[in-house]
Amino acid sequence: MEDEFIIGIDLGTTNSLVGVVDSGFPILLADENGERITPSVVSYREEADPLVGREAYRAKRLAPERTVSSVKRLLGRPFSDLTPEELNTLSYPVTNDGRDHIQIPVGKSEPVTPVDVSSEILRHLKQVAEAALECEVARAVITVPAYFNNAQREATKAAAQKAGLRVERIINEPTAAALAYGLDKIDDDQTVAVYDLGGGTFDLSILQMRDGVFEVISTAGDTQLGGDDIDQAVAGELAKTWELEDLSPSESVNLHTAAKEAKESLTAADSHTVRLPFLRDGRSFEHTFSRAEFEALILPVIERTRPICRRALAEAEGKEVKKIDHFILVGGSTRIPLVRDKIEEWFGYEPNLSQHPDEAIALGAAIQAGILCGRVRSIVLVDVTPLSLGIETFGGLMNVIIPRNSTIPAKAGEMFTNAVANQESIAIRVLQGERELAKDNWLLGEVIVPFENGPKGSARVGVQFAIDRDGILEVLARDTVTGKDHILEIRDAAVDVDDSEVENMVSESIEYAFEDMNERVWTEAKLKSEELLPAVDTALQMVGDQLDEKEMSQIKSAADEVRGLLSRGEKDAAVLKQANAALDDATQSLAALLVEAAFSDMTPG
Ligand code: ADP
Ligand code: MG
Questions:
Q1: Global pTM exceeds 0.70
Q2: Which of 120, 224, 278, 602 has its CA 20 to 30 A from that of 418?
Q3: What is the CATH number of domain 7-225+304-384?
Q4: What is the pLDDT of residues 533-549, one digit of tens each?
């Protein structure tokens, strides 16, 4: 079932989103209208299935008492927990079922529960995903606020189950946001502050990376503070300017809608004109907000987040967190430039703005889901070896074992032997780089493999390189005679190399390709000469007297030629190879005599 998708869901108070990792990239899925953001609203109808999302949002005007919004505020909480103010902010009635459970009578025979309403939203998101992916989806990662207690988390799971989704993991919203910003790769002990200002809630959470996972160090918030309060401030200002008192329900809705439009437009525009034709008694109203007027109006709302941030920061400081390394903003309301400016002014942190604030949590949920079903690691292209890995062989050459750009995990190996007789050990020097000579590459580590004395070529050492999914390189050197293993573990370095260093290494390897190659061929030829010359000397001593003079002088001059080339500093590899070949040729009959002599020694008498 490896191909089964796990979806990531941001089940928000105001808006919900669904995403998935497809072809290695996290993406958010759009509904049939191309919308990626679904309002978390459910509108119940007497005879038909409930409306969910944008349609439900529109139905709110016509049927406010049957349309449930911000149900997340109620999820997993007992009725007795709700304050009178909280009850006041809801546009629909809620009741106690007699056992302290919240019920919402929505005009049907049976009242619904917050779990029911949430499950409608999740069912809708599941359908959006199934339509977009053209396959069935049954598993999900769902985010919840860091401050959610166990009952609230369990209620979220129950809602998912009811919608036909198995919850693979519940993750904290700030953690998901940090994932979306790529902060899962930060070092241990680094900290992240996540400032989340949504539609109706605000929270600041401080996370710390510990052993590769985020831990929530502190969190503080206000569950009655968000974009709605900004809309309220703007709507109130309009009513005041136009001297409208005692707004009718429909006037109030029109004013709020216009206020929200003004707010969202002023994120980018310097001014915005609100026009409400025939609002009251056939009269039309118009007002132009400048950015400055708007900002003055909403500043008190934004100021309310400041003491909450201080609380979370102070609590973190009490837990030895001395500084914030990354400050990120999430939630649609942080699109407002004044919010960004104020954070910088108050805390001196320049917020990271590389992600869409209202999409970050869903994107992080999708990434987590992708990790769980193995779609992130196996497909993302960054998981390749940036540079070749190998070991130094006799003569100072680089012997590549895992070439550059191999996908990881990867495994490869080779056999090596002692190059000279009576060698007591072999040093396995692990190298990284693209150059032909060991000395031009980077030394990652070294392991000494001892072995028993013996003639050249008698020792056998198998060297195996294995890079796991996490980029850890394990070098295993096995003495195949004794079966003894020597293991060297190299963390990070094998995969985690700075881009610019990789670039340097590769461009140098191209720049020096010709010289490097010559050096390699020269070294190989030199090793051959060094093997050949003493062998010829020995043979001449043993059977030289059987050669005629012409042959003898031919061998001597061929050997002198090789010796001469070795002692000269020119390192002309091609010439040395030729000289080696000539010496080889000249010693044909010498070699034959040697073999003959060996055989005659063996025959007795
Ligand atoms: P939640 O987490 O509460 O579900 P979101 O993160 O989706 O909510 O934020 C929704 C809020 O963001 C709404 O109040 C909406 O008006 C506000 N918002 C969205 N876009 C903008 C914008 N461009 N400028 C100002 N506020 C915005
Ligand atoms: Mg949110």
A1: no
A2: 602
A3: 3.30.420.40
A4: 888 888 888 887 888 88
